[in-house]
Design goal:
This protein has 339 residues and is α/β, with parallel strands linked by helices. It has nine helices and nine strands. The two termini are 30 Å apart. InterPro entries: SAM-dependent_MTases_sf.
Length: 339
Amino acid sequence: MADANDFLNPGLLPPSPDLVPIPSTEYPNYFFRYQNRYFPLYRHPPNVRNDPQVQLPSVLPIDRYEMERRTVLHNLVNLCLGHKNWFGPFEQYVSPPEGKLVVDVGSDNGRWIEEVSDEFPHAIHFRGIEIFPSSPTEAANNNVRFEVYDFQRERIRHGDASVDVIHARFQNFHIQDWDTFLSDVARCLKPGGLFMSGELDISLEYPNGQAANATATTQLYQQVQQIMFDRGYTPDIGAQMVERLSTIRNSAGNPLFTNIGSEVYTFPMSANNPIVAEREISALSMEYLDRLAKSLRPFMLSTGQTSVEVDGLLQHHRGEIREVNALMRYRVAWAERCA
């Protein structure tokens, strides 16, 4: 959904009605079913959608159950950040708010953009971008709009130097060509504009040598990361982001980002955390990991493994996360577009 006459984006790509409102009755046209879960339809040619040898077009499904998992993840990170939806120097880049444009790439079910837009004046305009429609595609506030298109293949549909802030989180499961994506981010940002990245590690750390009690969990995450790597993803992009941002350059060899910063938030995962103040975040962490395992099941089956193998591993993993105390890491980074 887009307005080619949007004064904030005179260079919108393309300046035509290519992006139009999507009625809810058309939502099913964007999905196909695999292993009782729903995946993005447009990335699978019709003649191979039922071919078991064809790779899934994405690591994770995009159905209602997956959106519930992503809501749990949103709440977990919000709690991790001290009941905030942003990090780094975000506030200074949207002040004064008049005419500012914030773009959320990979907006999932829109929770981040809806909550942040409620906290800031309506003078700030927000745009959410996702590859599939997930209610809402329209928000009650007229300063919020959600758009549906493949931002990796088609690039971000905003003009050069037209955006004040670009926010992208939890994209290690989705983006494949990070250098191209970050170059496109730089293209869209105004000189001095801000890019924000947030990624949760696909692994756990175990204090007091408890890794011996989490062999299935370790095997699961190692296996998922290897499959992702083989299929062109960068599962540990969170740990690489600062270095990646420093290497993005224009055709003349000049860096495109400066003032790069980062922070790592560590939080507990435990079914029975003895520290009362940490019990809420521990419980959310465990719920998130349990839901993630269920969402990863079709991806693992798509490698040719049998359901007995996959289900056995997932069952042991779910049992382990109810017994061990572990740590999770959320890695954030930010950078300013060079003038």
